[in-house]
Amino acid sequence: MSMIKENDATSGRSDACEPGMAVAFCVNERFATPLAVALYSLLEHLQPASSLVIYVFSSDLSEESQQGLNRIVSDFPQLNVILKVVHPDLSCLQNLPVNFRFTADNYTRLLLDRLIPEGCDRILYLDCDVLIAADISKLWSVPIEPWHALAGRDMAIPVVSSLLGLRNFDKIGLRPDTPYFNSGVLMINLKKWRQDSITEACLQYTTSHSEYIRWADQDSLNAVLAGKWGMLDVEWNFAPAFLGKILKDPTWPDHAVYAERAEELRGSAAIYHYAGTFKPWNSYMAGMGYDMWTNTLYRSGWLSKSQRKGWPANVAWQSAKMFVTATNERRRALYYEWRQSRR
Q1: CATH 3.90.550.10 region(s) of the chain?
Q2: pTM for this one?
Q3: What is the pLDDT of residues 238-257, one digit of tens each?
């Protein structure tokens, strides 16, 4: 079948809802390389003739990066793919809390119900630090009703009262054992989001509880969607860096069952999520899946020959720079995270 390519660099909502599956990425230029890997891995696992529209929302994605993404799409002529690069108006996000890890771009997914065409009732949001290892049509076919979203339990923050969970869970009336999800893989029920004004509720929560925000929009989503989201199997959001935490922590909810399932997925997850500090593009200490991610990067053709030759040295430099420029407290935190990833 013929492949459709489209580059739609606009400032507003896309005009029409295209047939087939729909996936959204929210990214800035700094993450263009991991986005390329995520895109390539997504496309290479689809069945021939699959129809897919991919939205890339970015405030600053360069023309060179956009051309590179279009080239990746062109490598899969057996698919019906529409790629839309949209530069949205993010002015409503500028006053939200940010830090060294999160910028205003991280909150873009809160606006998806406004940015995606009205006729689209569902969108699969993906962080760009993922590697897809299965056909996402299987995930797309999971029933989403009656939930506002489907997500995987966070492998490092299983409940809102966890050490890194919601700081104010008790103040907003949530039980300590309320599940906490990771928003890096999020199947969104756009119809229910629009009906119940979830975007407005999340923006309001973030503004009024800004002193408690730790993980940007992920915190506001967990606060607003408590009791309104359905849990996906861990295979759809498997974070290799936190596997050791699950296996060694008996306080995890349903520890025996969950730990056994996580252990099964060491090399067979559907989506690997490189959550945490160590990423395959900045550290050899990214743990399980580093080689898999790097091999996908090479297959994608994103790097020039000279860039590919120098890639291992670049990763080593980024890894060394991370430790050299860190404070002593930050180094201890990095070491702890590394130990967790090696278990």
Answers
A1: 21-240+289-309
A2: 0.87
A3: 988 777 666 677 777 777 77
